Structures are given as structure tokens and as C-alpha cells.
Amino acid sequence: MPLNLRSQSFAMPGPALLVHGGAWDIPDNACDDHRDGLDSALRTGRELLVNDVAALDVVTETVATLEAHGAFDAGRGAMLNQDGEAELDAGVMEGHTLAYGAVLAVQHIAHPVRVARQLLAAGEGRVRMLAGEGAERFAEAQGFELIEKEDLICDRERDRFAALQKQAEHFYPSQSFRPGAMPSLRGHDTVGCVARDADGQVAAATSTGGTPFKPPGRVGDSPLPGAGFYATEDAAVSATGWGEAIAAVVLASRTVEAIRQGKEVEAAVRARLADMHAQIQDRGDEGATGGLIALDAHGNGAMAFTTPRMARGGWHANAEPWVAV
């Protein structure tokens, strides 16, 4: 598969943030909803940054806004697994401390990114990742309200599930547990944010409902530090796309390391996406697709994607927010 790689770079002085709402072939009729969701998230993040809120809390609440919107494969808009249920993953990371928190495959939490943030705060270095019932028990103990599974399911995803279930019965008529390898199953509305606060500290957050019609329990890159998100004192990155490939090449951490070593931010995101594509394609697969947003501690930002579209936006001090799909 030939590589179709597009990128942008930005000078982003002062407090700043970049957001994404997934990199895939976003349908024309979904673009306006994606723009609306990104705009809402940027307004949330901007308000926090101008009030000197720390980058970690900015990325958490910006992503929580995306989880609540419903346009994206995250939170209340999550795509459904083969059982017709939503399973959510999220992770956050603070650059100057290297502290992170992540939750995996949760089904009773409206805002997994907030629980991941609380796990970072409560873990004291001992526990940083929790999955399934364990994550939900932690959330409840920390004062989060657990919701019914059905509260995460929207009509759009019920319809998608019904269509994919019918398609799966054609591909795998004798299997009750299906690999989920039909070509049309790749859609990635994973959401993410990177931010730099007034003190120059950076943070990253990513949240997802995973791939459509995934096997129950499947976890991709989004809640894995170094893969779907990563931050050091130098830069913060959030990824979206084919989770298995992103995790295999630890895409986010390798991008941050390239920036730390002096590579320009746009060059770093382009090089790492191209390298992932080449590595996976060389192993006989159809090629790994995805996108990245990155922001360093010096006011340089960039984003890149290898898919037909990526929902994306940004804001920095003394500028107006912008969004694109």
C-alpha cells in the first residue's frame, strides 16, 4: 500500500493545546459532528489554560469533553464489540514527572480518562494501570458514579453493530468468537489531546472505544504508555489509528525521543508514521495507518496522518481555536 502522509507544523507560543478525534476515512455526513466536538473540546481546554490550570488537568478535561460529545469512538459514542457492548480504554501522562495512569476495557464508566487521571494521583507509583472490574471498583471507591452498560450505547453504533454482525456471519458462519478481520472493520475515532501550560509543562491523554466489532477484551494502543500516548519534560504525543501496529512500534515514545534528540516536531511525527508503515508493510500486512499530534516544551507543535482524513484542531495564546477534518 503506498504511503499517503500529510502533516502540518505550528508555532504555538505560551499555553497551547492540540486535539484529535481520530484518523480514518471519516464519512462526509459525520464531518460536521466531528468539527462540533473538537470545537467544544478546544473551548474547554482554552478556558482551563487561560486560568493557569496544569497541563495534566487540561488534557484530562479536554478529552472528557470529547468522550461526552457522542461523535467519536470514545465514551458515549464508543463502537461496540462482538457482544454488542462498549469497552473503553484511556490513559494520561504528565511529562515532567513521567507519572501516568490508564484504565482498560471498562464498561460502567462514562469518563475513563478521569479515572485514569485519578489512578495517576492515587497510585503513588505502585499501581498505574487497572482493567475491567478492578478499574471499576477503584473508580467507585474514588467517588465516581458507575453507569449501566446501555448508557454508553448510541443509536448510530447500534446500527453499525447490526450491519457488522450480519457481515461477520457471512465471513465466519461457524464461529462464535470472530477475529474481526473483515476489511471494512477498520475505523478509528480515538480521541486525544496534548497541552502545554503556563509553566511550560506538557501532558498527553488518549481515550477510545476500540475497533468496531472487536473481540471482547481486546485492548489496542490507546491506554498503553509509549504507544497511544507519551510525555516527558521535552514533548507530549497522542496517537490514533491501527492500535496493534502502533503498540508494536511504541509509536508515541519513539516520537517523543526523536524530538528530545533535536528532530523538528513535524519531521519527527512524519518520520515515525512512515517508519511504522514501512515496518508493518515489510512483514506482509497491508500497511499500518494512523495519526499523531505532538507539542514540545518550546512552543512547537505538529500533526500528521496517513489516512484519508483526521479530525484535528488546536489553540494557543493570543490566537483563535481552529478545527479541520
Folded structure, characterized:
The chain has an 8-stranded mixed beta sheet with strand order 5-4-3-7-6-2-12-13. Residues 181-185 have low confidence and may be disordered. The protein is globular. It has helices spanning 31-50, 55-69, 112-123, 132-141, 155-171, 243-248, 251-260, 265-282; strands at residues 6-11, 16-24, 88-94, 99-106, 129-131, 191-196, 202-208, 229-231, 235-241, 290-296, 300-305, 309-316, 322-324. Helix 2 (55-69) packs antiparallel against helix 3 (112-123) and helix 7 (251-260) crosses helix 8 (265-282). It is of the alpha+beta class and 325 residues long. The chain is built from 8 helices and 13 strands.
Any key phrases for this structure?
5-stranded antiparallel sheet; 325 residues; 8 helices; globular; 8-stranded mixed sheet; alpha+beta; Glutamine Phosphoribosylpyrophosphate, subunit 1, domain 1; 33% helix
